[in-house]
Amino acid sequence: MARKPAARHKRRKPRIHRHSAPGAAPGTLLVAPDARRTVVRVMAYNEQELVQYELTEIEQVRPLLARYTVTWINVEGLADTRLIARVGELFQLHALALEDVVNVHQRPKIDPYSNHLFIVTHMLRDVGHLDFEQVSIFLGRNYLITFQQKPGDCFDSIRERLRHNVGRLRKTGPDYLAYSMLDAIIDAYFPVAERFADSLDRLEDQLAGPSSPNILDELHHVRHNLLLLRRSVSPQRDSLSQLLRDEHPLFTEETRVFLRDCHDHTFQLMELLEVYREICLDLRDCYLSHVSNRMNEIMKLLTVIATVFMPLSFIASLYGMNFDPNVAGNMPELRLPYAYPVVLLGMVALSLGMLYCFRRQNWIEPLRKPAAGNGQVSSPRGSNAADGKVR
Fold it and tell me: Which residues contact 164 (CB under 8 A, 6 or more apart)?
């Protein structure tokens, strides 16, 4: 049965697609042709009451703003630029911020404006591969507006807490809701990072066992994904540092305490990603060293075999010359009755003697086949990596 070739991982290269023409006016709203249909959902609440439904017109949110403490407007899909512009007019959102909403290649950042705070972050979807989505958040005095590229997010736990009035959400303002979203987005990175840690454990076990030709390709794949995770988490850490450093009136001092905890999570995540990337490099070097040592042993064995057969070839070629043994002086030993077995025994003795001398000089060693899990391949992991794997 033919063996199927190993599947190769195709790297996804980060690209920036601007849909507005060069030199377009600031604030131009142009979206991708494949943008999802726009759906607007609202959750308005105070400590005693909560309402939620889907909006058909953005003007329907006006009475909610006057009645409830917090109004959360979630816009899924960016195809309807007219509706997005209408949201900007209703809440007096800055035109440059709205342009960053539809151009979904923004770096995570914090932009303060006069009446609102604009937050850009990257949400990671756990769909079997790395799928990053830009989430744009507008924080106002009594409202929170989120823009997502497509349906589905990691905020279901937040919605459940709001519906059942669990925790502090219903008792606090929109700043605490914004913190809860940022914390949920950061927490969604940890299971993915731990999945890559499990992949590294599996690859390390394979290194201790029989060699596999796919290990190097899988190591490159894991390291590339860890690099993408780091490129996403690093600016989010910087933006949270800016948010903690520069005080803003929309974030209360009580909420800033929780933001520090979210900021610590980003540092912890960055340290884990750095450790895992170093483990990838160590495993790659270990694999290449293992392959190189194995090749050196094979070449040494072949060299010994060739060296042993060199004198045997000389003897065989010498007595294989077509001289007449009946002529005086021409190889008289060929006329001995036991010349043939004597030469064969001499060749065997010569070979065994050479092998014995090589073994005494430690030039040759018996090839050892590594057994799985016998610890012959030293682990590049340190105690910090193992301890930092579980959050």
Answer: none
- pLDDT beneath 70, residues of the chain: 1-27, 126-128, 209-213, 322-332, 334, 365-391
Taking a C-beta distance cutoff of 8 angstroms, is the pair 149, 106 a contact?
A: no
Quote the distance between the C-alpha of residue 279 and its chain's center: 13
- Using DSSP's 3-state secondary structure scheme, residue 81 falls into helix
Number of Cβ atoms within 10 Å of the Cβ of 53: 11
pLDDT per residue as tens digits for the range 318-336: 777 766 656 655 666 767 7
* Claim: this prediction has a pTM higher than 0.85: no
Q: Using the 8-state DSSP alphabet, how is residue 124 labeled? A: E
CA distance 356 to 303: 15
Which token pair is 266? 């980003």
Q: How much is the pLDDT for 211? A: 61
* Sequence-distant (≥ 6) Cβ neighbours of residue 218 within 8 angstroms: 9, 199, 203
CA distance 382 to 391: 17
